[in-house]
Each structure stands twice: as structure tokens, then as C-alpha cells.
Design brief:
Number of strands: 13
Distance between the termini: 32 Å
Largest sheet: 8 strands, parallel
Order of helices and strands: EEEEHEHEHEHEHEHEEHEHE
Radius of gyration: 20 Å
Length: 254
Amino acid sequence: NMRTHVHAPYSQGKHGLACDGVELAPIVQDVGTPVFIYSASAIRDAYRSIDAAFADYPHAIHYALKANSTLALLRLLRELGSRADCNSGGEIHVAFRAGFTPADVVFTGVGKTQDELEFAVGQDVGTINAESPGELDRIAAVAVAAGRTARVALRVNPDIDAKTHANISTGMRINKFGVALEEARGIYRDRRDVKGLRFVGVHVHIGSQITSAQPLQRAAEALVSIATELRDDGVELEHVDLGGGLGIPYEGQP
């Protein structure tokens, strides 16, 4: 009952299926099946192509553990210079096991529990992306109770259609993720001096399986706009967080 999953460019070797020139049969014989086999060179190429696209512009790439949290893969990405995007307290623990530091971690996602917020604040993670004013208030309460200051960013909803499947679209007003772009400035202004919070960024995530750069460009423009307004209000942010899943050619098309 053999099931072998290969995640890489693969070819037919002398003795069967091969990945990056490595025969897969000996791996299967050694570890059994089912087994997932990943290509380190494909991962390196993908990461480096994204990294190179930013050239010398200051940037950081945060890999989303929700995509695949295999430790070997995470360690490879960390060695390449990646940081981590975590959607749960469990994913933060996994990121630490893979060698990422708290400063490398962005804690994002909806429905964060009290325990998860206490853990993230206690570990002093790089940024907590809040979904709402109410979550900002909960983070502040956790931070004050712990005698800490949490580094936070607010997720804004730019009402942008990512041209992806409706069920994985997150950046339109009807999706109810984050706060409306026009409300964000007031939320930052009203909570700028709240004890326990330090605003370091502004965040957007418009969906997954995005196959065109145009929606991401529009989202980036919206982020720059609100960041500029916040700067004028005296809120000096460290970063803008442009989120979304780049499309994968599942059917073998480039």
C-alpha cells in the first residue's frame, strides 16, 4: 500500500523516480511509506527568487508555518534568512524548535486565545497582528498584567479583490477580516498612548493562491497610504506587513 509524495521537480532516474538527481527508491526502502520527500534546491530557489526581487530595499520574508511546519523545511528556510509567520501558539513553539528567535516571529491569525496571547507577550515576539480594536485591548491587558509592552500591528481590510477563489479571499469588505481601512487611523490614534502597547506596523492579508501581482500592488499602496497618515499623526511605524499567499501551479502549469 505504497503512497509516496514528492514535492519537487522530479525525473526518471536509472532505478526509478528521482528528485534533484537523488534516487527515491532507497529512501522509500529505508523509511517506508507513506513518505513525503521535499527538494531543498527547489525551496532555496523559490526563497532566493522572492528575496532577490526586493533587491537592496530593506525587507524581511516571513514564512507561514500554516503552509508546512516540517522541522527540516523550517530549519532550511531559517538558514536562508527567513523569519516566521505563526497562526497559533503551537506554531510559535514549533518555530522555536526550528531555531527561530522570538524577534523572528509575527503572530497573526484570527481567534487567538487568552493562553496564546499570554504566551506570545511573555516571549516578546516580534509583532502581534491584531484583528480588531477589541483584540488590541486584550493584548494591552495581558501585557500590563505581565509587566511588558507588546509590539503590535493592526490588520486593515483594504477591500481589494485578490482575484482568487471566493472561499480563500480575505481582503474584501464582505470577508470581515481586520478593520476597514478608513477606520484604522482613528484606532491607532485613540490607542497610541495605551499602556502595554507599542505600534510597530500595519498589516494586510488579502487571500491565498494569488496569481497576479496587481492585487498585491494595490494592497501595498493602501498600506503606504495609511502608514504615511500615521506618521503624520506621530505614530512612527517600523514596517508594513504585506500578506497573502503566492499562487502555486498545482496542475503543472508555469
